Amino acid sequence: MANDIIIPSGLWEGDDECVITAWLASDGAQVTQGALIAEIMTAKIQYEITAPASGTLSIAKQQDEVAAKGDVIGAVS
Amino acid sequence: MITAPFSTAADGIAREAALLQRGKPALMLWQAAENALVVPVAVARRDGLQRALGEAAERGWPVTVRGSGGGIVPQGSATLNLAMVLPCTAGFTVEDGYRMICGAVTEALTRFDITAETGACPGAFCDGAWNVLAHGRKLAGTAQRWRAAPQGRVVLAHAAVLVRTPEPDLWPVLQQLQAAAFAAEPPLRAGAHIALDALLPGAMRQSAFPGALIRAAEDRLTALARRERKAA
Question: Could you tell me the residue range of the domain that residue A31 belongs to?
Fold first, then answer.
């Protein structure tokens, strides 16, 4: 079963988008639940994204791509 | 001494990172003795920027990276930094973090009869919606780093306050690096900024500012902790 990696929806108040500034694990890598796997930036904040589960990381949106609240940027299965 | 002295901005940033990692409420005022330009790590690793970074270092402004977002910020004895580490529950937003740290700076200024507001300032370094402005000019910039911790989110909110008017040699270096890193943004103007020494003539009043700032930050941190306890 895949666990989506989602941009949190309640983090900021407006509809601004964010940028994926880094993937800290590679596509296909084994990751552990809670491990830091990506960073996003919006409104001069850097926000850490952690793995929602342990398993194989699948990246859907690449570094420097723009994402909106609620977007799925990858999954762990 | 109320302000932690560090030799370099990198040392101060490392201390902030350690406080964020610890995840407990914390406040720190700090200042670096040596000049540096601090850029977000995501900006520093861009292709094509390495030459501009090297040139800045050759001109006396070595570049240090930081984990929070934003643009280029000068560090050194002209800049006073406030770091607030805020453990918080769901519902706390980016804007709450900015309101908290900008509120601490503006309240501290109020004690000296200086009216300040938050807003963007085109032509200022590291411009954003959450600058602290005095007379429409940038006095302080803010940024945040958020960490997901087992017990919830932890926020590092950071403000860099210009306490002394920067030396003129800063501007050409900063303008060159800004143009290389943020070509689409307006060019930097020295006149878009203002420092505490221009707002608070007299060394006594300037030396009282850190105390007022830490008290205002402490009040906010205490109030947040009380709210979080009540919500738990």
Answer: 3-76
Using a CB–CB cutoff of 8 Å, tell me whether B120 touches chain A: no
Q: Which ipTM was obtained for this model?
A: 0.87
Mutate to test the interface with B, among A13, A31, A45, A69 (most CBs of B within 10 A): A45
Q: Give tens-digit pLDDT for B96-128.
A: 999 999 999 999 999 999 999 999 999 999 999
**SS3 annotation, chain B:** CCCEEECCHHHHHHHHHHHHHHCCCEEEEEEECCCEEEEEHHHHCCCCCHHHHHHHHHCCCCEEEECCCCCCEEECCCEEEEEEEEEECCCCCHHHHHHHHHHHHHHHHHCCCCCCEEECCCCCCCCCCCEEEECCEEEEEEEEEEEEECCEEEEEEEEEEECCCCCCCHHHHHHHHHHHHCCCCCCCCHHHECCHHHHCCCHHHHHHHHHHHHHHHHHHHHHHHHHHHHHC
Query: Is A66 within 8 Å of chain B by CB?
Result: no
Residues of B in contact with A12 (CB under 8 A): 93-95
Of B41, B93, B148, the CB nearest to A12: B93
| pTM listed for this prediction | 0.92
The hierarchical CATH code for the domain B4-231 is: 3.30.930.10
